[in-house]
Amino acid sequence: MVKVKLTDKLDSDVLVVGFGTLKKNLKIEAGSSQIDSASLLTTLVAMGATGKADEVIKLPGKTSKIIVFTGLGELDSNIEPERLRRAAGAAARELSGNKSACFALPSKSVVEISAIAEGAALGSYAFTEFRGKSKDEQKAPLLQVSIITKFADTAQAKASAKRAEIIAEQTFLARDLINTPPSHLTPNSFALRVKKLASKYGVKVEILNEAALRKGGYGGIIGVGQGSANPPTLLHISYKPVKFKKKFAFVGKGITFDTGGLALKPANGMEAMKADMSGAAAVVAAVFAIAQLKLPIAVDGWAPLAENMVSDTATRPSDVITIYGGKTVEVLNPDAEGRLVLADALVRAAEVGKKSGGLDAIIDVATLTGAQVVALGTRTSAVMTNDDELCNQFLSATSISGEMFWPMPLPVELRASLDSPIADIANIGDRMGGMLVAGLFLKEFVDPNLPWLHLDIAGPAFNTGSAHGYTPVGGTGIAIRSLICLAELASSQS
Ligand code: BES
Ligand code: MN
Ligand code: ZN
């Protein structure tokens, strides 16, 4: 696990600085470090460096063994924190094989220090658990990142370094879970891994096994999981400080593998469906981080876990299931399974929240639709809501976290397409606007008076392209930081 330190002077063989362009001229931005900028700039220009985002160049240094230049792009007067976060992350990724690195990027305040610390830590990740003979060839990620800053002694900056460590620790947990193949991550093993960690963070755990789910009337989770030899579970974790200002429930889609069931997906690309539990991983990581940060927010995390498989016991198109609480669903397409497990969990989470004094908000996180990827691509997630005030607050949180989310509507006109001729609702409707239709389905399982957000992270959850910024190939851990920032915003309100 990567350590994050603050320092007022260079403390590593590796120094990372920024560079970019100002009025088309290459310029070095070395923060509070002392380097021989003029001669280094000459070298960089001679090399044809551009200073664009994700460009990382290593040169021999004088005060450090190597000096690493990470691209900041155009150096206008305002370099947003997310740009620093990404530049720090890109450098950290290129520094695998080194033990430590010291970051000297431009910063005006603790906000920038915080972003640099997060980016550097988040970029120091590798997933090598399943390498056998090739493990030795892998360069280990950085074990320590330090940030050079004149604020090194302030309590605020120290807290931001600790926070960056926590964010990295929990994001790495989520990435590890997402990257773990379904041969090694079943609903049961997911729940047990989380249980083992929970006591460490002072988080309570409850696991409903298949028998309990059947008995309790969780027809969505049972219906989706019934085709698999690996039985489904409902994982519930909760963090409740003595005093708290708000109470949230987070609900994450936890399909450990989505074959599509009897609506079998094409083989091409199916491997990425090991990431169909990214919502569940994000929810667990966010709850753990909120607990570690000791925020005055009570939060329940729910992860309906199931494997969507093809077998003689799998749900058939036209089967009818009964969601927790009694609504019936005609399963016209077993590949629209996420909404079924989420429906059970949303109803149960609201019920438990109500019994313990009421929820201020319920937020689900899911790799729910291919339509999300078509609409917003692989870098931007969607947010849908029944409460604009909560949504605006969440969008403020995302502008701090740097994660890209975009609001999407839930047009009532599309609701009729989910009507079933025989049950309360069907699990698919209009193909056009499929992301919104999925959101409308979930909305049926949420009390209209309970502020609710639905986050569709289908595209950004799993990076099938190449690494960029602090984002590796594979599981990304998207949504974790925004959930944490939302809880932080709620903590600082009266
Ligand atoms: N897990 C998929 C959605 C998905 C697609 C996530 C691509 C990440 C990348 C989900 O369970 C699914 O299969 N959705 C269907 C719904 C359809 C049958 C209404 C889809 O989007 O095609
Ligand atoms: Mn599916
Ligand atoms: Zn799915």
Layout of secondary structure:
Elements: E1 3-7, E2 14-22, E3 25-29, H1 37-47, E4 56-60, E5 66-74, H2 81-94, E6 100-104, H3 110-122, E7 144-148, H4 155-179, H5 187-198, E8 204-208, H6 210-216, H7 219-225, E9 233-239, E10 246-252, E11 254-258, H8 278-292, E12 297-308, E13 319-322, E14 328-331, H9 338-355, E15 361-366, H10 370-376, E16 381-385, H11 388-401, E17 405-407, E18 425-426, H12 434-443, E19 452-456, E20 462-463, E21 474-475, H13 480-491
Parallel strand pairs: 1-7, 2-5, 2-6, 6-7, 10-12, 10-15, 11-12, 14-18, 15-19, 16-17
Antiparallel strand pairs: 2-3, 4-5, 8-9, 9-12, 13-14, 16-19, 20-21
Helix pairs in contact: 2-3, 3-4, 4-8, 7-9, 8-13, 11-13
The structure holds ligand BES, manganese (II) ion and zinc ion.
